[in-house]
Design goal:
Elements lengths: L15 H9 L10 H17 L6 H4 L8 H34 L3 H31 L7 H36 L37 E3 L29 E2 L2 E2 L1 E5 L4 E8 L3 E6 L5 E4 L2 E3 L8 E6 L2 E8 L3 E2 L13 E2 L2
Antiparallel strand pairs: 1-6, 2-3, 4-5, 5-10, 6-9, 7-8, 7-10, 11-12
Helix pairs in contact: 2-4, 4-5, 5-6
Length: 342
Amino acid sequence: MAVYDRGALSPGSQNPGVDAGIDRAGLGHRRFFLVPVVFERQFTRLAVAIKGVSGGAVSNLVGSNSPDGFVQYILSSITKMWLLEGFIFGVAAIATAVMCYRRGQGWRSLVGVLIGFGSVAFLTHTLSAFIWGTVEILQYAQFPWRLLTIMSLIASLSVGLLLHRCAIALVHHKLLSSRLRSPCSGCVPRSALNLSPQPPAIQHPTWYSPEDTGRAWLAAEKPFAHLLEDAYEYQPTDAVPPRRYAPKLWFDGDTAIERWDAYDRRILTSATVSQRLTLRLYCYPAWQAKIDGQKAPTGCSEAGTVTLEVPAGEHTITLHYGWTIAAVWGGDCHGGKSWDYG
């Protein structure tokens, strides 16, 4: 493709159609380059120039047809974009880390943040740098290059945020799939509990934990308590999970959970027990329990259970499991090995 200058815009030009279009657009300036020409002829020179930039060879590698140094424009634009995007992404990363810490989502969300930012940083800065350099060339044609640069940066950041969200969702999905579908170690299958298959319907609102990534299996000797389980997977990226993901404790045919504290990871129940009750807490090595405000002894047995003796009468039971969780999947115990959550 030919390179056009003032001499090419003459009645004897070999490309009158293109020349006429340039004239009508008011772009008939001495150093105006068509964008295809820039990418066709200068991209190769740019690659070579970047290799020799440390030796000060940029000026020698720029062709005589380049508008005041196409390579210098691109390289300076890359530097500008690195500084600007580095600041923007740095602030966003710090803000996201603080948000993850406050919500208790822990290292898994931070991994998603790093993957999300890292996967788009190079692409966005490179794309923006080329757009930046190209529109600076077009300033010779009185082009509003500053506005176009701002628009390209906004578009790049929008794409970056979209890919960032996709990366977080992908990380959560992969981790949950690998954790929840792994064989259970030291857990008791649901079939061994001999629980009723279907608890009664819920007649009032139920609290839930937005941080719960598995099924918090809280069960008791039949027929006093049942866990309403669900075979659906909960995605932590959901802002408000459906009620079916809530762990529920059943006493004498009615749910007794008053509050499930997502940030303190605490279950508070009030129950009237008709006879002495033994609660069995599965797959939780870090349970802390209180009955009527008094700390109750707990300890994880070899079978992977924690027993809690509740005397007959009206009692308030607080169960707190700290920073360790485990999962029950599809009615049987899977992924029983607990992992750090926060």
